[in-house]
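Recap from last week: sequence in, structure out.
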Amino acid sequence: MTALTLSTSGAATLRADALVVGVAKGTGSKSGNLVLAPGAEAVDKAFGGKLAGILETLGASGAEGELTKLPAPDGLKAPVVIAAGLGPVPEKNGAYDAEALRRAAGSAARSLTGSKKAGFALPVGSVEDAEAIAEGALLGAYAFTAYQRGENKLAPKAAVGAKLPLAEVALLGTKPRDKAFKAAAERAVALVEEINRARDLINTPPNDLYPESFAAVASAAGKEHGIKVQVLDEKALVKGGYGGLLGVGQGSAHGPRLVKLAYTHPKAEKTLALVGKGITYDSGGISLKPAGHNETMKCDMSGAAAVFATVVTAARLGLRVNVTGWLALAENMPSGNATRPGDVLNMYSGKTVEVLNTDAEGRLVLADALTRASEEKPDAIVDVATLTGAMVLALGNRTFGIMANDDAFRTSIHEIADEVGEASWPMPLPADLRKGMDSPTADIANMGERMGGGLVAGLFLKEFVGEGIAWAHLDIAGPAFHEGAPYGYTPKGGTGSAVRTLVKLAERTAAGDLG
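Predicted structure tokens:
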């Protein structure tokens, strides 16, 4: 993990491999001009007040995501200056959007792979700005290198090893002795360390991450952070009647698990339950996925990774709220023992489900976990899942959908996601789509109408939520795993989608802001 320091040095005197400053696109009378953002004053002075002109000569425009590197003049201790684009100059109050700061810091940190230290002199007008920059830089500095050994057996003398991420982020323009700044830095470190742990889990190959090994990771984290962990293995699942988890996992050599993580605070007045889909590999089962759709299915446990990361973060921050995480873990494989289309499963709730498609498996494991979570009568339940391709078709690769049985709760989560910089959109649960899941054989089928498939999946889950409990469903199928080139603070591979939203939800619940 990249280290974070609140530096007492000025930009001109900081000894580092690089200095990062912000630049923006001028608006109004300065439209078309490049504008230096606050924090760049000392660097501009070292360039004789000509930094903006030099950057424009090099083609810089201040556009979001744009990076321009140039050698530093003699007046700076750092040898390199990086100008990170922030987008348009803010029109109100001169305050830059937190997400613009987060993305600029992330882009700069990614470009500094292999460096030991960088100073970030982006505009810090508030504690919130400092926290956003810290989050972005630490998220951007992520790299998954666990399987890059650094040796080439065909050419033993040749080194192949990957470069390590930026080792240290020095945040300039802050107040290192101020309690609020220190608390913001500590929160950023705890949050990002757990997001990055979620990313590591998502990126881990399925031959190493399967239900039992995921449960072991959760158990170890529980011991470290004072979280009570309970693991239900196959025998316990059979005894308890968890037909959804058993039905999905029965085709695999790796048996399913239901993991409960319970963080409690002695003064908590509210309890938040989080349920995560944890399909450690999804082949589709007997309804086998076609070629080209299997290669990234190690990411189908991203919801469980997000829930795990959130519970641990809540414990590390000591939030005054009880947070219980349920990881519904299974591997969906085809075999002579696998569930077949047409089989009927007896769910933990007592309902029976006709399985029409074994690739609609996430809703089956979530259904059991939702019922179990409901038994403890939490104040609210949120489930998180890479559930449907239909949601990706509806919202694209960067936005997750939010469904709920309570409009106000759905709105709150949407507003929280927007606040922390995670793209989301509220989606309906049309009652007319429920009829498509009627089964002549069982209480309900696991498939319904093809059109609106993401909403159908949400309606299925709703059937397993306890009476009178506020519930929301986050379908993160789009943003959970990024297959394209990295951008901002988003890496290639696992992203840790929804963790920031869930942590902020827990903080709001602790503060009593959600009623």
